Amino acid sequence: MVQKLDMLKETPSQTAGPYVHIGLTPNWCGIDGVYPEDLGRVMVGPQAEGERITVTGRVLDGSGTPLKDALIEIWQADAAGLHNSPVERRGAADPHFSGWGRQPTDGVTGEFRFETIKPGRVPYKDGRLQAPHITFWIVARGINIGLHTRMYFADEEAANAECPVLARVEHKVRVPTLIAPRSEGKDGVAYTFDIRLQGEKETVFFDV
Amino acid sequence: MADKDTNAIRDMGSFYQRDRAWHPPAFTPQYKTSVLRSPQHALLSMEGTVSEMTGPRFGHGQLGPLDNDLIHNFSRDGEPIGQRIIVHGRILDENGRPVPGALLEFWQANAGGRYRHKREAYLAPLDPNFGGCGRTITDDDGRYWFRTIRPGAYPWPNGVNDWRPAHIHFSIFGHAFTQRLITQMYFEGDPMIWQCPIVSTIPDRAAAEQLIAALDRNNTLPMDALAYKFDIVLRGRRSTLFENRMEGN
Ligand SMILES: [Fe+2]
């Protein structure tokens, strides 16, 4: 026998199930009057710094069908590369930008939509800069443990090319699964980020 | 203040790698929906960067007084039908330290096993006085509690006769986005736990047992509500004493 390490085990995950909206976006699914509004619905205040962008996309299963019951959370830095978090050590983030958003995929089309700002660059562990990115976390019926991935920006070619995290993707052919194309229209700047759970273009997911 | 300083230091080390063998794998054919929704490539393993080691924090000021009271937060003309219960516990990290300021959100079926959701097809009736959602934030010792009614078991389309054991869904935010967790709480003594294809996605029985709340007679409210105790463990961090590299800043 040896001494015990006295570590606890992390509570195991279970699927969020088909009714995740009751708990996390109750107003969206018709449960009115319990909370004034759904958390994470609005990320950007009128005075927030940075370029306003819209991020839309779908989560596609192995048959190419969009998930209509998924829930997505995003987390990102502000325009200056700082996080609105008490554990951010590098400075105070923009108080008009929360950095955290939560949206369901649409019950008919399967599309999700975030109104946010384009983030600045944040450092990697060794001090090199990562390319601008948004962290995605996806839960749904049939997903046993939340999936982490990242969205990068197609118009940041130089930064993407030197990003130490993208450099860790062994099969370079898979890097484009993380990069969202940009378009500019009458509604402003939009990025499209489809997440593929399976198949030839399966998105790179992270164990982070 | 000393405590606050300790918290600050504790929040700087990198996270222990997640024990993926303790969690359910993505592909679990007994739970049919997972078949087309499970990534097939290996996950890209990476030590967290500042992007994942930070996370949103929620304040008590964002919550309403009935948010942790599912018996009253949707009440229309009375209280919901069902067994009144208190659920309480602590949020700890893998080092056994409490996680203060953690946001918990929970959702559940009513006493008959019916969810208030437009996709729900079970014939059990809605309860006009039960919405089924609540939330709370842990105190300085990582403690939380809420009041609700015990949810019923319900059938679901998987096998032709699969039923979920009574359960409450939990969503938890720690201090870092990498600690994000969604899970389910089951009730001590329920034989249906071990017949459930979703419980059985967890490979290790000891891990599944970690999701079973204990009947807590000491905290039962006499003539009012039974109590169940459900502790939740989030990922923990290395001590910064052992960090051999500078943080990326
Ligand atoms: Fe459920």
TrEMBL record, chain A:
Family matches, as CDD domains: 3_4-PCD_alpha (cd03463)
Gene3D superfamilies named in the record: Aromatic compound dioxygenase
Ranges that cross the membrane: none
EC numbers on record: 1.13.11.3
Alphabetically ordered keywords of this record: Dioxygenase, Oxidoreductase
Pfam name, any one: Dioxygenase_C
Location of the Intradiol ring-cleavage dioxygenases domain: 44-199
Superkingdom, taxonomy of origin: Bacteria
GO MF term set: protocatechuate 3,4-dioxygenase activity
Leader peptide range in chain numbering: none
PANTHER family cross-referenced by the UniProt entry: DIOXYGENASE, PUTATIVE (AFU_ORTHOLOGUE AFUA_2G02910)-RELATED, PROTOCATECHUATE 3,4-DIOXYGENASE ALPHA CHAIN
Membership in a protein family: Belongs to the intradiol ring-cleavage dioxygenase family.
Name of the protein in its database record: Protocatechuate 3,4-dioxygenase subunit alpha
Native source organism of the sequence: Ollibium composti
Lineage of the species this protein comes from: Bacteria, Pseudomonadati, Pseudomonadota, Alphaproteobacteria, Hyphomicrobiales
Gene designation: pcaG
